[in-house]
């Protein structure tokens, strides 16, 4: 019985020309930081070179590199989110048009008359939101960030975390319920 040969092979000397732009665009959408996206793509290429012997040829080079990049992105968020208070909560304000990609924090009304109390209140609100998210169970926080803040697709989250879509929505619902309770307790009662 002959051994079946892989249908796809790796050509690392062509990765930059063939995949760098695609991988960069993929990463920058998910991390919203071009320098970080470049670093993640470089890490992906390096990891690909290190693990080339594990490539079985069952997928295309690009698919294999994207799967490495996805893992790098998830690892990045796990790392920053594991340190309490370091996660940056950003919520998209505009989905389309000339302001697409603007963040809610950038859209806070600036006409508060330079009132220092309002500035402090805004920073305290952000800290309370961060603390509430960080106090969620780890899986809830990760799923909430991936779906709500980082805007990963449902099927992508399910595949990466090995959960079903219905499980994902239960986790999102529970996370939102806990966040609402935390905000009511720590912000609105003050």
From TrEMBL:
The keyword Transcription applies. Residues 129-179 form the RNA polymerase sigma factor 70 region 4 type domain. CDD domains: Sigma70_r4. It comes from the Bacteria. Residues 16-79 form the RNA polymerase sigma-70 region domain. Belongs to the sigma-70 factor family. ECF subfamily. It comes from Asprobacillus argus. It holds the Pfam family Sigma70_r2. This is Sigma-70 family RNA polymerase sigma factor. InterPro entries: RNA_pol_sigma-70-like, RNA_pol_sigma-70_dom, RNA_pol_sigma70_r2, RNA_pol_sigma70_r4_t2, RNA_pol_sigma_r2, RNA_pol_sigma_r3/r4-like, WH-like_DNA-bd_sf. Keywords: DNA-binding, Sigma factor, Transcription, Transcription regulation.
